[in-house]
Write a structure and sequence with these properties.
The protein contains six helices and eleven strands. It is an alpha+beta fold. β9 and β10 form a beta hairpin.
């Protein structure tokens, strides 16, 4: 009886920052020779608005014992939206194994990744206290150096050490950007498709109003946060994404400007 074909999907991290990325390994194992094809848009319809994905080099095929083979492909994946359980899944691929000529669909397991936005603060008890200036040992007497030179060198060392200590004490953590600034920056550099425009606005609504906007439909979001302009923009993006209505550069640019105007002046949280 031929061995079954199995598919796995393994991330190198279960929790990442919104500004970070992870490496995702997709593998298929089965009888040799193993022939695997992946669709062009690798992400599923559910995950495409939430993640950006890019292959890390070509796929590999590794021979295994008992006439088996393993196909492996690594991807770099970066999040668009935060959340405790952001769904991450691939579209079904096709595989033909062993003597089978006709390829069949193969599904990879779905994942949930935690995407954080806040900087983790260090508690006072965990901080390493600044050490004082260590007392330098006396310099041995030398006939080659006059006493004045030795005193000058000692004073310079003390000043440099004190300057380093003061600089470390005054150093402050880089402040986290406000949600509005994050969204406005993204709407300049990243917002080139309806998917990304919608993802940026949902991420802003999630952080600005503390709503699960990244996991809600447009209709569900309108019920908990009635904002006519936000709903109109998201509905336009939904039509382009799901009805196959392509946007040209002028339409996309106009929608980006409309989204930026809403970020600057959104409807306050009704709660």
């Amino acid at each position: 009886m031929p061995m079954p074909v199995t598919a796995t999907l393994v991330p190198d991290q279960q929790t990442i920052r919104l500004s970070g990325s992870l490496t995702l390994r997709a593998t298929v194992e089965g009888p040799a020779p193993l022939r695997v094809e992946m669709p062009g848009p690798a992400l599923s319809d559910e995950s495409a608005p939430l993640w950006e994905i890019a292959p890390l080099g070509p796929a590999q095929r590794i021979d295994l014992p008992d006439g088996q083979q393993r196909w492996a492909q690594d991807y770099k994946v970066s999040p668009f939206a935060p959340g405790a359980t952001v769904p991450l899944s691939l579209r079904d691929g096709t595989v033909a194994a062993g003597d089978v000529i006709e390829a069949t669909a193969i599904a990879f397991p779905a994942l949930s990744i935690r995407v954080d936005t806040k900087i983790v603060k260090i508690e006072a008890g965990e901080a390493i206290p600044a050490t004082g200036i260590e007392e330098l040992p006396p310099l041995p007497p030398s006939d080659a150096l006059p006493p004045g030179v030795v005193g000058f060198v000692f004073a310079v060392v003390l000043l440099l050490t004190a300057g380093i200590v003061l600089s470390l004490r005054r150093r402050k953590p880089k402040p986290e950007l406000a949600p509005e600034e994050v969204a406005l920056r993204a709407l300049v550099s990243d917002a080139d498709t309806p998917d990304r425009i919608a993802a940026i606005l949902r991420t802003f609504a999630a952080t600005r109003f503390d709503l699960p906007a990244t996991t809600m439909t447009t209709a569900e979001l309108a019920k908990v946060h009635p904002d006519g302009e936000l709903q109109a923009i998201l509905e336009a993006c939904d039509r382009a994404r799901f009805a196959g209505v392509a946007w040209g550069p002028e339409e996309c640019g106009a929608m980006v400007n409309r989204a930026r105007a809403w970020v600057v002046d959104p409807t306050p949280d009704p709660a």
